[in-house]
Write a structure and sequence with these properties.
483 residues; eight-stranded mixed beta sheet; disordered N terminus; 12% strand; alpha/beta
Length: 483
């Protein structure tokens, strides 16, 4: 029972204090301190950072965990509540709005964030309902006072009246009338993103399972740096399992704590990298050249350096060198730190106008800036931050970068065009537009350099998927200059 209901009950009995009278003078005791759970407070601070500063959740959270001194189970809970709430934002907002007496834009933003976390606890965790409500009410009471706490308490008790399935049955478009809209609502995706997935899949037949996989908490993927540690050794020291497709990959279960504190990561033997990102880099390194490999590779969009680490490690083994280009000085510095000790030269430049020779490189990677729709499960706030208007400008940039890559690669050399997005305007659309104006490029079948990876479609390009491969939705096409 909350404070407001206790005082109302006292007045009805006639034995309580008069309104606004306060306790008798000289007899005031110390107020009971409000116990705010630090994991919920940390999750709330993460949502505030994303909302107020457009922070990236994966970059903001580690500092927040350190500030609250959270480790192990508490850190895992804060991560789950923060990331999970951000992933499900649209779904949670619709449910909270159905229980509120005013539109969400008329509720103070910090209270909306608290309501979102509370709704997530009620609908998508095993936390008992009373604990899910009480912990958030205490948080709000500490931050905003008892009146706001009572308001939040009432809304969350309304949310708790139904489980997620009942709420979606009540609020989602009917599946038999609007399958795409239904799947988008149920799996917490904006409709335009669900449409982009359906277009890339070719139909809505797999859409529901694809969106469900994209909405699930992802497994952590590590890259065992080539020449430093094997995947088998990394799996043994981390307690993980070897990846099914990448010979350098290791999987860790979600909730494995602060990845930066893993010894192998802290010592530079391993880095966090999705297995799909590993596969597209490996595909470039395996693609057949015409003529001998002259020993010059190029990563044209290298920041923050994950794929440059893998390519640089392979280059060291093969006795070749890698040039890495990154436009942002800050991100270029990240690349330099990541590839320290490898045969990699980092250039701070726009990849479209990099001061590098033409017709020279054997292998060129264009990991183009994109909407990131293929990594939404790892970037929880991204699905609500992007909008359809972003695609056209990015597609223009992607075409220009691919054109530059084909200028730098030598005849007989190979370009890998890669995006972490399945949106057709960023994948097949870019490649088709560039090749329409050229007759000196042939497409290679990327499936042939990804042995053992199932369900790769009809080729020659490859689209990876979370629900088929357990990877981010990475796209790759391989192009070889013939003259």
């Amino acid at each position: 029972m909350n404070e407001q209901r206790r005082s109302t009950g006292d007045r009805r009995r006639g034995d309580g204090p008069r309104r606004n009278a306060g306790p008798p003078r000289g007899r005031r005791g110390p107020e009971r301190p409000i116990s705010v759970d630090p994991a919920r407070a940390a999750a709330h601070e993460l949502l505030t950072a994303v909302r107020e500063r457009d922070a990236y959740a994966n970059l903001a959270l580690p500092a927040i965990l350190r500030r609250f001194r959270l480790r192990d189970r508490d850190a895992a809970l804060a991560t789950e509540l923060g990331y999970g709430t951000l992933r499900a934002l649209g779904l949670l907002d619709a449910i909270v709005a159905a229980c509120a007496d005013r539109p969400l834009h008329r509720i103070e933003p910090p209270l909306v964030d608290a309501l979102r976390i509370g709704a997530y606890q009620l609908l998508r965790t095993r936390i008992p309902a009373h604990a899910a409500v009480d912990t958030i009410v205490d948080l709000v009471r500490d931050r905003a006072g008892s009146r706001s706490a009572g308001f939040v308490n009432a809304i969350l008790r309304g949310v708790a009246e139904h489980d997620e399935a009942a709420w979606t049955a009540k609020l989602a478009p009917p599946a038999d009338e609007d399958l795409l809209g239904h799947s988008a609502f149920v799996h917490a995706h904006p409709r335009w993103i669900a449409q982009a997935f359906a277009d890339a899949l070719g139909s809505t037949e797999e859409l529901d399972v694809a969106l469900a996989a994209d909405d699930a908490r992802p497994v952590v993927h590590l890259l065992a740096r080539p020449g430093e540690i094997t995947a088998e050794e990394l799996a043994l020291v981390t307690g993980g399992s070897e990846a099914p497709y990448s010979p350098y990959g290791v999987h860790l279960e979600p909730g494995s704590g602060d990845i930066g504190e893993i010894d192998a990561v802290a010592e530079g033997l391993a880095v966090v990298q999705d297995e799909g990102s590993q596969l597209v880099a490996l595909a470039l390194s395996r693609a057949g050249l015409v003529g001998e490999d002259t020993g010059r590779w190029l990563d044209l969009c290298a920041g923050p350096g994950g794929k440059a680490v893998l390519l640089g490690g392979l280059a060291a083994i093969d006795g070749v060198t890698l040039d890495a280009v990154e436009q942002s000085e800050h991100r270029a510095d990240l690349v330099r730190r990541a590839v320290d000790g490898l045969p990699v030269t980092v250039h701070t430049a726009d990849g479209r106008e990099a001061p590098l020779p033409d017709d020279t490189f054997d292998r060129v990677l264009v990991d183009a800036p994109c909407t990131g729709l293929g990594a939404l499960r790892r970037r929880p706030e991204a699905r609500w931050r992007r909008n359809p208007e972003d695609v056209a400008g990015l597609a223009r940039l992607q075409r220009e970068l691919l054109t530059a890559a084909l200028r730098h690669v030598r005849p007989g050399g190979v370009v890998a065009y890669v995006t972490c997005s399945p949106h057709l305007s960023e994948t097949a659309g870019v490649v088709t537009a560039v090749l329409r104006r050229r007759d000196d490029v042939e497409r290679l079948d990327a499936r042939e350099v990804l042995p053992g990876v199932p369900d790769l479609g009809d080729g020659p390009a490859v689209q990876l998927w979370p629900h088929r491969h357990g990877t981010d939705a990475m796209f790759i096409t391989l192009l070889r200059r013939v003259r």
